[in-house]
Every structure is written in structure tokens, then in C-alpha cells.
Amino acid sequence: AAEPLVLGIETSCDETGIGIVRGRRLLSNTIASSMAEHARYGGVVPEVAARAHLEALQPAIEAAVAEAGIALGDLDAVAVTSGPGLAGALMVGVGAAKALAVSLDKPLYAVNHLVGHIAADILTGDDVEYPTVALLVSGGHTSLLLVRDLVSDVEMLGETMDDAAGEAFDKIARILGLPYPGGPEIDRAAATGDPQAIRFPRGLSRASDLAAHRYDFSFSGLKTAVARWIEQREAAGEPVPVADVAASFREAVVDVLVTKALDACAQHGVPRLLLGGGVIANRRLREVALERAAAAGVAVRIPPLSLCTDNGAMIAALAAELIASGAAPSRLAFGADSTLPV
Ligand code: KG4
Ligand code: ZN
Fold it and tell me: Which positions in this protein are listed as binding Fe cation (predicted)?
């Protein structure tokens, strides 16, 4: 079909996402999150996430089908994230997708989660142009990609060597005594702080690091630096200026993300930058990205947040593009691959 009706299943982390698209048109995007269950651990607990997917999938599928106003039998294909992500969480989605595809006798498309994030942009209704550089930042990944063609040519330029950007926000929030998830909390606290108050390190940004890690990220050194700075203040019996620490930390993360993304645009002669992932909610990140990109002559695209955070619609959208390009469905023997390359 030229405009295939596709249901996408996303369970790579803590969001159970079911999305339905007709070609490039979004019909429904249902998301159930187990974030609240992870709050007391300060981060996503894989086993808890997997169990939550098992319980949330069926109701989410029913809700998405109802919202789209379709019947399951109308579907042309089923799509599912097969990686990268948490192995147990992925397996729940893959198992459900296989069961659905077999019972409906429809083709099944296994897709890459990161490429799915890039495909989300198609659903905004605006014309999408390639090549583009894509910066994907969430609690689970921090990746810089060069997209020459969505279905056939996506190159990983670099990724985090340790924590994901969102994870860094969550860990620093914890150190500052702010609740989980920490990203929005730090964003709020930083609003009244001075981003230049403390000069925290920019990971993998020294000339000696850039040779081998030009587009890679590292946030563990920054985390240690913030923790040490706070300890020293406390040891000296001085109060911790939470707003200044939050603003300075946020500035360090944002600076390195935007600097490397625009460096990739410049090196590859690509005047487009696509942003994706839950950390895109960060106000300072959007602001600095838009400001510096404008100065560099780079057009920035930021899909609505509901399409930036993990969701099933982006997975369905990618499969619809694959179908339109004539790609064959996946053979049913595929598994979940927590480190699936693009
Ligand atoms: O894409 P997402 O919803 O899902 C997962 O990665 O699971 O991203 C969630 C992450 C969390 O680490 C959260 O702290 C971070 O995105 N986040 C933010 C902001 N809002 C959410 N980080 C920085 N600033 C924000 N405003
Ligand atoms: Zn994601």
C-alpha cells in the first residue's frame, strides 16, 4: 500500500508506546510510563520496566486502536523496536509484536530505536530534508548521527562513553536533593542561577580528546566534578548555592552537546540539525541550540515533545517509510538486541 496503516510498539526503556500511522499521518500515539515506579530508585530499574511493559501493553494497544478509529484487522503491518535498549524491556515488546503479527497474519518490521527517533520528524507534517545531523538525548542514550537517507544511510558519528545526558541530570539532581526525574527539576532550579558561577568541565572537549572522540560524549567526569565541588562547600561549612550549581551544570552539558552537534554540521557541510529525546525538553538546550545554529546558518528542527520522548508512533512511522521504500519485512526469528547498531 502507498499509505500503509502501521501499528508501532516501543518498549526499549520505561515508556510503553503504541502508535498508529497511515503513511506519514499520525493517527494515535499512546504512552504509558513506569517512571513513577522507578522514582524511589533514582533511575530506571530494568526488571521493573520489563514487568510494567507486560501489564501496560494490551491496554495501550486497545487505547491506540480506539483513538485511531481503526480495527486491528485493518493494519497493513506491525512494527517493533528490537534495539538498542534494555534487553528485558525490549523482549516484552518484541514478543507482543510477534504474537500480534502472527495472529493477524500481517508482516512485522523490526526497527532501530535511534532511527525511530529520527523518523519522528516525518510526523510533524513539515517537509523533511536530508542530509541532516541528528542529536538524540534522553535518559538512555546520547547520540550524534549523520542521516543521509532515513531508510538506507544513517551513520553513527558518536555517542556517550558513560552516562546518557538525561542520566547525568538525574544523578546531579539526586546529589542536590532534588526528586526524580532530575532533568525538569534542574531546569527549574537553574532558572534563578548564574550559568557562569562555576566552570564545570566539558567532557571530551580537549584537543587531545577530540582526535579520537570528536563526536563522543562523557558526563561522568562532570558528575564527579559537581559532587566534589559540593563536598568542598559542605566541608567548609558553607551553604550550597543550588541554583548556581544547577545552572552551571546545565550550561556544561548544553555547551558540549550543542558544540559537538554544530561541529558535525560544519564538518559534513550539513545545514540541518534535528533534535530528539526527552532531554530536548530542557529550555536552555533549546535556547542555545537555536541561537548558535542560527549564527552558523544551520536550521534546527524540534518535533513536539510527545514525539521526542520514547513513543510508538515514531516506530510505526519508520516502518511505513521502510514499506514505501520496498523493504522486506523481518523474518520472525529475530530477537532483542540491547546494543543494536544503526
Ligand atoms: O526520552 P525520555 O522521556 O525517556 C527515557 O530516556 O527513558 O527521557 C527522560 C530523560 C530523563 O533522564 C529526564 O531527567 C530527562 O530526560 N529530562 C530532562 C528534562 N526533562 C526530562 N533533562 C533535562 N532538562 C529537562 N527539562
Ligand atoms: Zn529513546
Answer: 113, 117, 310
Query: Which of 138, 176, 257 has most ligand 1 atoms within 8 Å of CB, for mutation?
Result: 138
> Do the domains spanning 5-123+309-324 and 128-306 agree at the CATH topology level?
yes
Could you give the ipTM of this predicted complex? 0.98
Q: Is 180's C-beta closer than 6 angstroms to any atom of ligand 1?
A: no
Q: Provide the β-strand partners of residue 79.
A: 8, 109
Nearest Cα residue to 18 out of 70, 80, 71: 80
Tell me the domain boundaries of the chain: 5-123+309-324, 128-306
Identify the CATH class of 128-306: alpha beta
69 Cα to the center of ligand 1, angstroms: 31
Q: Which pLDDT belongs to residue 42?
A: 86
Q: How far is CA 191 from CA 175, 183, 245, 248, 277, in A?
A: 18, 13, 11, 11, 21
Backbone angles phi, psi at 309, to 5 degrees: -75, 165
* Fold that domain 5-123+309-324 belongs to in CATH: Nucleotidyltransferase; domain 5 (3.30.420)
pLDDT at 1: 58
Residue 279 beta carbon below 6 angstroms from any ligand 1 atom? yes
Asked whether the predicted pLDDT for residue 233 surpasses 70, the reply is yes
Distance in Å, CA 61 to ligand 1 centroid: 24
Q: Over 90: is that where the pLDDT of 40 sits?
A: no
Q: Tell me: the pLDDT tens digits for 266-296?
A: 999 999 999 999 999 999 999 999 999 999 9
- The residues with which 5 forms a beta bridge, in sequence order, are 22
216 contacts 161 by C-beta, under 8 angstroms: yes
Residue list for the binding site for Fe cation = 113, 117, 310
Grid cell 552537546 is found at: 257
